[in-house]
Amino acid sequence: MKKIVLIAAAALALPVAALAQSTADTAKPPLKERAANTAKKVTQKVVPKRVIKKLEEGKPISEESDVVLTQEDLAVSKRVLTGTIKCELGASVALEASEKKPGFFVVTHGTTKYFMHPVNSRTGAIRLEDPTAEAMWLQLGNKSMLMSQKQGLRLADECQATEQAMMAEDMKKNPPKSLFEGADAPKN
């Protein structure tokens, strides 16, 4: 019985001792020491995030890349639609062929620029990627989109160049066959 009482007393005494020690650690130093410490403090300037973002966006992109394009990639790059392409919600994306590296493109969305190169696609879609910024431009027959792989979202959607707008209108008039309809009978 005495052992149980001693264990209970020790269990209750430990938190009280810890509390007493923590209050002793947080006690304020004398006034003279506090004045000396405040004189030694160096104020660090905090740069607002909007200023940092503006500086990063204003930096020119590096058109140096260790990516080597194949003949298939160069053939795909000839099919990329360039110029300013209007997107939904009043956004736009500008695509320009790189002057320094054939087959590469400078894609501008707002104030952000990407240096993209074609990537082979099994679906036939034209796909440009910027591995450093982790961004991707996907060009289909009737629309294009700019996606951030890093953030996991679309930066610009429903982008249509003139050729794509014409194809979208044609698809409305002559909708493509559904996958469930089956193949056409062979013509004799």
The radius of gyration over CA amounts to 32 Å
Average pLDDT: 78
Cα distance spanning the termini:
104 Å
Percent helix among the residues?
25-40%
Please give the order of strands in the largest beta sheet. 1-2-3-4-5-6-7-8
Number of strands: 8
Largest sheet: 8 strands, antiparallel
Spans where pLDDT lies below 50 across 5 or more residues:
none
N-to-C series of helices and strands: HHHHEEEEEEEEH
The percent range for strand residues is 15-25%
The geometry reads as elongated
Describe the structure.
It is a single chain. With 188 residues, the chain is of the alpha+beta class. It has 5 helices and 8 strands; from the N terminus they run ααααββββββββα. A hairpin with a 6-residue loop joins strand 4 and strand 5.
Task: Note the topology.
Layout: H1 2-25, H2 31-40, H3 49-58, H4 71-77, E1 83-86, E2 92-97, E3 105-109, E4 112-119, E5 126-130, E6 135-139, E7 144-148, E8 153-159, H5 162-173
Describe the structure in brief.
This protein is α+β, with helices and mostly antiparallel strands and 188 residues long.
Question: Which terms summarize this structure?
Answer:
188 residues, alpha+beta, eight-stranded antiparallel sheet, 5 helices, 8 strands
